[in-house]
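2 proteins. here.
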Amino acid sequence: MILRAKYAILNSRTIIEDGAVVLCGSKIQEVGRYTEIRDPCSIKVIDLGSAVIMPGLINTHTHLELTHHKNLVNHYARFTDWLFQIVTKSNCDDHRQVNQAISDGIQLSLAGGATTIGNIQSSEKGLETLKYSQIRKIVFLETLGLSPHVFFDESERINKRLKSLRNDDLFTIAVTPHAPYSTSAKLYQYCADIARLNRLHLSTHIAETEAEIEFLQHGTGEFTELLNMLGISLDVWDPPEVTPIIYLRQQGVLDLQPLLAHCNYLTDKDIDILSKSGSSVAFCPRSHKYFHHTNHPIMRLISAGVNVSIGTDSLASNWSLSMLDELKFLANNYEELSSETLISLLTINGTKSLKLKNIGKLEKDWQADLIAVGISDDGRPVFDQVCDETSENLMTIVAGTICYKNENLEI
């Protein structure tokens, strides 16, 4: 199969006119100008017209289990009030609801241009649905618990799940201790140990709110109130009196070059530590706006050489799961980010964040993970048209398989 379009974005630096991609099985066989690579044999050609073929977008942090929580969770001024709603509502969800949420989340992700996701999975519910879906995914098995008596149960649960699951071409297992305000140091260290032993990727929510910083430094504030409301004892909690990033370093987590979700509040020292550790950051721009956080340190992170990628978070804190929407938001609200940087943030940087290979570019022998974005072709720079509010994803292909097709696209 050959895909042809008015333009093709091969990577952050290369845009060509009359672009074409030849697909063979799950890989890209050839890429370039259509007139130069056209095969005289009768290979099916899909001409997408006024469109841009580009690498599939990589969503490095999402929670598909919460897809059905859209508009069900009230947005309070305090993050912990929002979190309390999530916890109480999620505890009531049955297998059917979670299965449907994950199935819907996958379809919304594909429609929004994501070919790969880094999904946080808190339970066994819906795991089979996720595993056998067509989207490429890194599934971070979540664990949490502050109390000593929870440690044994959680460690056993994670071990059992790791033994029961096998990686395949589109499915990779990883681990994620939830956050410092919900997960004990012992459980963090345990996750780091099993990740190291089993060569697993590790992610965690970190430095997401100022309340988290207060909890770690003083043991006071909103999170103390939340934990009390949830009946979680803090009798054994001894505040480490450090920033969240230094706390992770103390637990040996940064030695694994983890993927750190959010990182909304960082000191210069934190950023220096992250740069030296080789850790990656998953910035969730519209979720960041949803909670009215202050300016994200994305430019300071990039300047320090930290690998930054992009996530949507969940529909409980975002308006869509579309990575194309995320790209448009960034282009319209972060003028300091160049077009080259924006492309990298949503493609090749995501590859590095999830520790994958051969995705994130349109390149010979790389995986055939790509999308086609319909544009107006009005003479403006190509990338400006991709980021225009009128552009739309026409097609999503993962490992050579068409997983989403816009209803208006005739092929």
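next one coming up
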Amino acid sequence: MLYPPFLKIMKRAAIGFLVLAATFATGVTAQDVHLEKALRVLATTPLVDGHNDLPWAIRNSEAGPHDVEVPEHDLRKETSFHTDLERLRAGGVGAQWWSVYIPFEAVEEGAAKVQLEQIDIALQIIDKYPEAMELATSVSDLESAFGRGRVASMLGMEGGHAIENSLGTLRAFYAMGVRYMTLTHNGTLDWADSCCALPRHGGLSEFGNEVVREMNRMGMLVDISHTSPETMNDVLDIAEAPVIYSHASARALHDHPRNVPDQVLRRLPQNGGVVMITFVPSFLTSRDQATIADVADHIEHIVSIAGVDFVGIGSDFDGIESTPVGLEDVSTFPVLLAELSRRGWSEEDMRKVAGENLLRAWREAETVARRLQRERPPSTRTIGELDRTIGQDH
């Protein structure tokens, strides 16, 4: 990433600040050459975290009714969450995908309504701290925000149940700023099989295929975390743009249904997608306590199968109760990169895992979307038409 000379000076000055902040937050000495190497990377390359559940953590906190949740939590101060402004700075976070998760059970009260509320909470958070955060809906927005020293803030939906089987609703969420959607959460949908529920379609239904095609046309990243291997393969069969896993790990290292099989990883380079390795302990190991070494092991396994150009970081901070030892909150990202440095990683490859791979995949998805928008109009297909279902049209 290239910056004007004055911004390069600012970035060099930021290295010293990050060293002090990270030392204070993590207890690692500033003389650690691997930490200093990590901080050099983060001063000039945005660390892009694929998944942080702070908006849902705020909604579920004890602050009170929905309309007072965001004002009751001041991120300028230390919080009980994994996330606040000081720790974001110490962690060198350059860009954050804020998950606007809603539970599968929200379909009972109107999933689209609950989804709108979560988007509203996330936008309130971003708007409340203009000195520290900036909404980003494109790669260009992200790079501009990072250049101004702000955390580029993107919205990612977690679960296609929120669109209520409607492509029009999907497009409305895109218009509100959502730039990725996890096709399923833990429940199987009318059009896609999940990782963690009984399959109904053998992957994607015909309407599920249309959802993926429409996401590609819009430029919304297709996130296949939480999906079944059959759904993953169906998506890779039809996707015209790179996919992502916003928070997942390697099934070969730990046989968990939320993790990615090697067979799928081998297909990833042809698609150009990125697996963003998560910090969820139960996805990393069967031991009682996960560690930073486990996360690094999963990163290196993705590299060994797919290559270094197809891996990133997706913490799931504030969506997990426990964390790996050494990765307790958002201030600890430099320590993870320092661990990779100790294992012999070059600065070039550290930059890739920190954020460059995700930026490349997103930029390619934007290019594909521009082409597809010239070639075809928004889809008006329905689930009733495509899947011959009864009572599913909206």
